[in-house]
Amino acid sequence: MLSVAERFALRDQIQGLWYPQHGGVWLKVVPSRPLAERAEVAGEVATAREVLETFLASELYNWLPEDSAYGTFTDCAWRPIDRAEVLRCVDEIVAGANARVAEARAEEADLRAEAEAGGYLHALGPSPLEGGMCNFELLRQWFVEELWGATEPAWFTNMGPDFREEPAVIAVDGDLLAILWLP
Q1: If pLDDT is split at 50, 70 and 90, which confidence band does 172 have?
Q2: How far is residue 30's CA from residue 124's CA, in Å, rounded to a whole number?
Q3: CA 99 to chain centre
Q4: Mean pLDDT (whole number) for 19-42
Q5: CB 178 within 8 A of CB 171
Q6: How many domains are contained in the chain?
Q7: 8 lies in which domain range?
Q8: What does the pLDDT look like over 135-159, one tens digit per residue?
Q9: For the chain, what is the total number of helices (H) and then of strands (E)?
Q10: Which end of the chain has the least Cβ crowding within 10 Å, N or C?
């Protein structure tokens, strides 16, 4: 189990990662205490849902890529879930990202083969996935295990049977709020 200082160091490491603009899983982690202080009503300790709502209303836009659907997160219903459903949702998000990246790599391989045959491979430049965080299993491990202390965080998701937008899971504890999603 990581100490609070180690958890914050991991948060800083995660915040410094570059994610593929299309096709990868994104993970962002912010301190939850300032959110909880803003969510407090008449000195009462804020609930995890109030911290989540404060994050969505006032901080989320700082962490999304420009082409991500901001309204998807602010307008959808966030329902609490248990650990078993967290794992199912996260596995679904990771599987979706792996499929998208495999498709992007196959398309890129075809494009590069065509460019090589045509003699203009040098004009393509680097892969759009190059340098991006594509180790989705590591992101999964950080999100479901390593970011959290001795107490399980409160978990929320926007995923459900009729939901067709960007799927996400959010976790909130007394120190951190983390969002993992598939843009």
Answers
A1: very high
A2: 36
A3: 17
A4: 80
A5: yes
A6: 1
A7: 4-181
A8: 889 999 999 999 997 789 999 999 8
A9: 6, 5
A10: N
